[in-house]
Amino acid sequence: MGRSRLSAWLVTLPPFAWIALFLFVPYCLLFCYSFWSLDANQQVLHHATFANYLHLATTPLYLTVILRSMRIAFSVVLLSLAIGYPLACFLVFQAGKYRQMLYQAVIIPLWISYLVRAYAWKVIFGNEGVMNTLLQWCHATSHPLGFLLYSPFAVIVTLTHIYAPFVVLPVVASLEKIPPELLESSSDLGANAWQTFARVILPLSLPGVLSGATFAFLLSFGDFLAPLLLGGPSSVMIANIVANLFGADYNWPLGAAVAVLILAMVLTILTLTQKLERRWRAA
Amino acid sequence: MSSFLRLEGVGKRFGEHTVLESISLDVEQGEFLTLLGESGSGKTTLLRILAGFEEPTSGRVLLDDQRLDALPAHRRPIHTVFQSYALFPHMNVFNNVAYGLRVRGCPRGEMTSRVQEALAKVRMDRFATHFPRQISGGQKQRVALARALVNRPRLLLLDEPLSALDANLRVEMQRELKLLQREVGITFIFVTHDQSEALAISDRVVLLHHGKVEQCGSPRTIYSTPRTPYAASFLGKSNLITGTVRQGVADCGAFSVPANLPDGPVTFSLRPECIVPATEATGEHLVPFAAEVVAEQFHGADSLLTLRCAGMELSARVAALHNGGGFAFRAHDLVPLEQE
Fold it and tell me: Mutate which of A177, A186, A189 to test chain B, going by most B C-beta atoms within 10 A?
């Protein structure tokens, strides 16, 4: 009895310690910081105040940047779905013996450093880059296209490249779960391939689409490297603001307030999508 | 003369593996035909060829003299009831049944009345708004039937539809299925591995074995006159008795019977219920024999006896306990089988 209690403790302790140390404590600190403030000498004043949140609410910049971050994240989701959904369908229903290979091809980019992939796009989109050289070589344009790099466009393409696998994998999982006899049954009842897709495959894959879209949205929304490396002033995202407040500005209380705001938004989105997903699964 | 559905030399190979070997079969309009066989006999493959999920590697399938094998599954006037029912989990019962009519663009009013009529026919009209996960196996079965029948197919294929049901429900569904088939007058092709189900439900049974038609006929014919040892032992219980024919008489050891067969070895089938105690035997051409009762299994309505006589064991199904001594059977119940 005593022994099994002990082993139960030994098994449960590490994950609890992990969560406490790396999740709970930092978030508590963050939360506390967001109610503190700075004095004239940039020293943290440990008095609870809503000043940081008031500042966020009254400065239009923050709303602008949050909306832009959402717009960029939403574009990434749409682009990832546009590329990823057909790919997932092909992988599950058409690929045959190449299925495993293709599946690996989706996963392998995840092993390559984010920085390497972001810099690769810099090489592709730069003024002297692959894309502009190619366009000029085939006389599509006479001078380098400036909007390719340091623009929301570059950020969206890069984030799509990085987060599309997070859309493909759950969609593949949900497509694989569809019993093949449902597709046969649909065709047996007179539905052509398109009708079977629209009435059976698509509705049954929606939970996968939703979880993939949620992943891609949240990861893109909180991304700060892509806008830092490939985005110009017009594509500053909310995580860049946080990084600046904590780094260059050394205003941890305000940075913490923005971080708490982001966290609240993320949790809201997660709760809503989980609720929706549960409803779909029940139906 | 043309028949309703005709299979001409239909064969199917998967690589080196031959699943079906040149099946030829004529099916009449309104017939209840059963494809009976063990797993691996090719019965499901044959059904899938009719449905259009598999293409035959040889032969052709004609429906009303029209080539059927050229049509994709969704253009065939044939519907299937799947073993797993394959109801769409995201649609309620009504929408499941309406599916075939919807994809064909049936007008809304007609669709609604036809779906309701079909649901009423299988007594599921009260469950129209239920989802498949909310109804029982037997109810899913009925919905799957309604979903196929609502489209008025020329041919209905049923792939072991009763195998997931418990024994009592199964017998009830067999009865209902047969009544339903009479009522709608649609040709049913039913696949099963259960010989008693096949005998109970069909107008005609096609016994498949290793991708070939072993025997084909009405349940009574196929039961009372099996053609091969496989047919005799697969359909019900049978005593396989070997003997030697010499000058019109078959010598089986314990008894000899007149046999209009060429000289040489022979195998007979004798159903256990054809053996009766000698004292109760009536009729002509009785063959009496002496046997010892080795074991008795009491089944309620009757008993299964294991008899030993002249070195062979025979099973006999008798009404009352019998302590041995004389038994008899009628000569024409001894059915000569083709050698395999």
Answer: A189
